[in-house]
Structures are given as C-alpha cells and as structure tokens.
Amino acid sequence: MKKFLLPALFAVATIGATSAASAPKVATAAPAPAYKLQPQLSTLGWEGKAVTHGHVGTMQFSDGDLLVKGNNIVGGTVTVNMKTMVATDIKDAESQGKFVGHMSSDDFFGVATYPTSTFKIASVTPIKGAAANADNVTIAGDLTIKGVTQRISFPAKAGVKDGVAAASGKVTIDRTKFGLKYGSKSFFESIGDKAIYDTFDLTFNVIAKKA
User: Fold this and answer.
1) CA nearest neighbour of 147 among 112, 182, 171, 102
2) How many whole angstroms separate alpha carbon 206 and alpha carbon 39?
3) Cα-Cα-Cα-Cα dihedral of 62, 68, 73, 74, to 10°?
4) Interatomic CA distance for residues 144 and 114, integer angstroms
5) DSSP code, position 178
6) Using CA of residue 36, residue 37, residue 38, residue 41, what is the dihedral sign?
7) Which residue ranges does the record assign to the Lipid/polyisoprenoid-binding YceI-like domain (predicted)?
8) Contact predicate 140/122, CB 8 Å
9) Helix, strand, or coil here: 193?
10) Could you tell me which residues come within 8 angstroms of residue 8 by beta carbon, excluding any fewer than 6 positions away?
11) For the residues of 44-102, what is the DSSP string, one character each?
C-alpha cells in the first residue's frame, strides 16, 4: 500500500506545482496618475444671501490632486483652507472683521475646530451631446464641511491637455445638511426678514499639473 501511495502523492504534488507555474497571470490595471493641484492658479468663489441682503467672496484651496486617465479626470481630492474666507464686497476693515469672525464662529463654519473642508471625487460621468464650451461632465463626490460628510453632484467642465488637468463649474450647497442652521427659516420660523437662505453657491476653477 505504501509503495503505491507515495508515488501517487508525488505525482499529484508535481502536477499541482506545474499547473500553478503555467497558470496565466491576471493583469493589474495601473493606477491613475495624480496631477498636483496648483493653489496659486485655482480659484474658489462663494455667494450667500439673506432676505434683505447678500455677500460674495473668496476662499483658497490649500492642496489636493486630480486623478487622470487619458484626457479625462477620473477622481481626486481637494482641500479648502477655511481660514482664508474673505467677503470681497465688504470694503470697510472693521465690517470685514465682524463678518468673517461670525462666519468663522460655531454659528457657522467653526473654523477653530474645523480649519479645512474637503471634497473627494467619487465619479466623473460624461454628459452626452455636450457643447464644446459647456459643462461636459457630472461630478459626484463626498463634501465634508464642519466634520459632516454629504454626497453631492453637479455639472462641470473638465478635461486634460498638455499636462494640465482643469475643472470648473458652479455648485449649490444646502448648509443645513452640514449642521449650519443659524438664521435658517427652516428651523426658526419666526425669524422673519432676518432669515439667511439655506443654500449658498460655490464657483470653482481647479487647475492641477502633472508631476
């Protein structure tokens, strides 16, 4: 019995080793290269409105990258420095300080605790039949403000050319979904004409370059 069993085991082991060695290898897709965001070339504008007034201004991107495949942006993450908020329509220094101070407080963005906001791209979907100079993709991803993350999507114009990846567009954000309820008529019905609208707009132009 032993004389039969040992050769049989050796044969099985040999066949198994040969099969493993000759098995075709599965190709692994190369990761999409990352293009480094250029804060000095990128812009981020904002506009917020209340019943009786409104303000416009800017913030600055601090860092990030865009993932690229061919001539398309396929992913990436960008970070905004919330301490760079400025209201460009307020010219008086004292009024500017009061406004930014209130926006930076826990009533709104809580900048001392949450100094950055981030957006991580989940998908970039081409818009069929898009005109040459119009929005050509729909970007979906996770926006994190004040430690709260929400999935959003919006149209944008995006592409890659000569080692530069760019994306631009406008997105409307519902601040109450991130816990920013101050002055919202949705939560304080008796606030009257002191109400601040729940949504604000962001206009962005992100530029990233191949490393």
Assistant:
1) 112
2) 8
3) -100
4) 10
5) G
6) positive
7) 34-209
8) yes
9) helix
10) none
11) EEEEEEESS-EEEEEEEEEEEEEEEETTEEEEEEEEEEEEEEEETT---HHHHHHHHHH
Q: How many residues does the chain have?
A: 211
Locate 205 and state its tokens.
Answer: 């132009």
CA distances in angstroms from 194 to 65, 109, 182, 184, listed in the order given: 40, 19, 11, 9
User: Nearest CA to 165 among 40, 46, 31, 42?
Assistant: 42
Choose among 125, 41, 28: nearest CA to 75: 125
* DSSP sequence for 93-111: HHHHHHHHHHHHSTTTT-T
Q: What is the pLDDT of residues 135-189, one digit of tens each?
A: 999 999 999 999 999 999 999 999 999 999 999 999 999 999 999 999 999 888 8
Q: What percent of the chain has pLDDT over 70?
A: 86
User: In this predicted structure, what is the pLDDT of residue 25?
Assistant: 55
CB 52 within 8 A of CB 93: no
